[in-house]
Amino acid sequence: MQDLSSTEVYSLSVLSIACIAILVNAWKSDGEPLFASLAISGAAFSFTYAVIRWTGDVFIKRGYKGKDLSKKSPVELPEAMGLISALVYLLAVVNFLPFAFKRDIVEATSGGGNKDRVLEAGMDDTGRFLHRFPLEKLASYGFAYGTLATTTILGILDDSFDMRWRHKFFIPAFAALPMLGLYFVDFGVTHVVVPLPLRPYLGELIDLGGFYYLYMAAIAIFCPNCINILAGVNGIEVGQSLVIALLLLLNDFLYVSPWMHQPHPATDSHLFSIYLLLPFVGVSLALLTHNWFPAKVFVGDTYCYFAGMVFAVVGILGHFSKTLMLLFIPQIFNFLYSAPQLFKVVPCPRHRLPRFNARTGLLEPSVATFSEEKPLRPVVGEVLKVLHELRMLRVETNEKGRVTQCSNFTILNLWLVCRGPLREDRLATEILVMQTLCGLLGLWMRHSLALLLFTQDNRF
Ligand code: UD1
Ligand code: MG
């Protein structure tokens, strides 16, 4: 990989120095968590950007490499570089904690700044007033960190051993255990609000009990995996993650904005979400600059799992998991559409990414082929033909009318079936624009249309 150019060194240095200056000022005045988080995210961007450049060749030497399958002469690129983003992110979160809790530490001690408002007689014997420290808030960060660190470790395992899909599918469930444990001891609410039309039968609230934990585990499994299967085009894994993160930040802003009636009961949850998402945006932007078409690095399953788990963590510990799902509409569609191949009703090749046509330089739908020895079940073939008529699939048949091949069941291939061949970056851009529109629609539904089903929007 190329060394950093002098312009890059200059820009990254200026950004880092500005961020450090903001951090120093924030520390002088009560921590200022929001400014500190922004500055740490800027520094995380610079650091990730530089480290990806410095270590790309080392990854290749160690065997972490992959061929870019959609290029005329496929070169080997560093694989699993999302590891750098994940590690810098974990570092950024830890470094943010002193800023998040400075106010509480100062209030509870006679420490610097002499703001010992809570200082009382007896303090000499008992030392710091640690019992006043909001440990339950710190716990959320701690368990989020534990879950994300475990996810990263398991992601590296996957990238190192190229695990089978049916094995790695459940990896995130193990990583999510610390977070679900915290939910159990700290929050433990397993009631859900019943939509208005169902209230005469079910009442206002319904207790899902253990099923609520299964639901959260399902979210923790779904988010990472659905990002990993909407993949294979330069920039799409990081791009879709950035879109989700920015939409979540927009939703958080609706709760913490100065125009909202403050203090709102959900402010703390949404600040928690903001503080976890800002550094995520920083490290992901740095990765995207290297992964966008034409890619210089691949992000690896480590990044897909890590990104998905960041969303699961903020959704579950921030108590807005249903809103979170509204921002995953394309991924949910892709998962449902993929189901026939994921569950082996239709054979699933190792790679389902779109096929590169070297003559035109454009991407076309990739296909799964069915041989005479391993034919498709006739009834499945008939369903595929109906999907073909509906332009939901591209199917080819032989002279006997038997289905010999069909386009792979991913939203990327479906997009190409509908739109015709596209250049790689054009496909990625169109999918991201569609995802942004779906996400905005989801948020609108959440805050406006939901009033038809529930008595009020919880922003008010
Ligand atoms: C998932 C998909 C698989 C898709 C792959 C592409 C399912 C069940 N699995 O598998 O169909 O082909 O992601 O990421 O849906 N690559 C490119 N260009 C890119 C990104 C990746 O050519 O922009 C290739 C590279 O050779 C890279 C490899 O894909 O090394 C990475 O594949 P990997 O992430 O290991 O695949 P899976 O996550 O197992
Ligand atoms: Mg992958």
Automatic annotation (TrEMBL):
Protein name: UDP-N-acetylglucosamine--dolichyl-phosphate N-acetylglucosaminephosphotransferase
Uppermost EC category: transferase
PANTHER family on file: UDP-N-ACETYLGLUCOSAMINE--DOLICHYL-PHOSPHATE N-ACETYLGLUCOSAMINEPHOSPHOTRANSFERASE
Its EC number(s): 2.7.8.15
Secreted among keywords: no
Recorded family membership: Belongs to the glycosyltransferase 4 family.
Enzymatic reactions: a di-trans,poly-cis-dolichyl phosphate + UDP-N-acetyl-alpha-D-glucosamine = an N-acetyl-alpha-D-glucosaminyl-diphospho-di-trans,poly-cis-dolichol + UMP
Assigned GO CC terms: endoplasmic reticulum membrane
Pathway(s) it belongs to: Protein modification; protein glycosylation
UniProt entry keywords in alphabetical sequence: Endoplasmic reticulum, Glycosyltransferase, Magnesium, Membrane, Metal-binding, Transferase, Transmembrane, Transmembrane helix
Pfam (any one): Glycos_transf_4
InterPro entries: Glycosyl_transferase_4, GPT
Domain of life per record: Eukaryota
Location within or outside the cell: Endoplasmic reticulum membrane
Entry membrane topology: Multi-pass membrane protein
GO BP field: dolichol-linked oligosaccharide biosynthetic process
GO MF annotation list: glycosyltransferase activity; metal ion binding; UDP-N-acetylglucosamine-dolichyl-phosphate N-acetylglucosaminephosphotransferase activity
Predominant subcellular localization, coarse grouping: endoplasmic reticulum
Regions that span the bilayer: 9-27, 33-52, 80-101, 138-157, 169-190, 210-230, 242-260, 272-293, 305-329
Biological role stated in the UniProt entry: UDP-N-acetylglucosamine--dolichyl-phosphate N-acetylglucosaminephosphotransferase that operates in the biosynthetic pathway of dolichol-linked oligosaccharides, the glycan precursors employed in protein asparagine (N)-glycosylation. The assembly of dolichol-linked oligosaccharides begins on the cytosolic side of the endoplasmic reticulum membrane and finishes in its lumen. The sequential addition of sugars to dolichol pyrophosphate produces dolichol-linked oligosaccharides containing fourteen sugars, including two GlcNAcs, nine mannoses and three glucoses.
UniProt entry tagged with the keyword Membrane: yes
Cofactors demanded by this protein: Mg(2+)
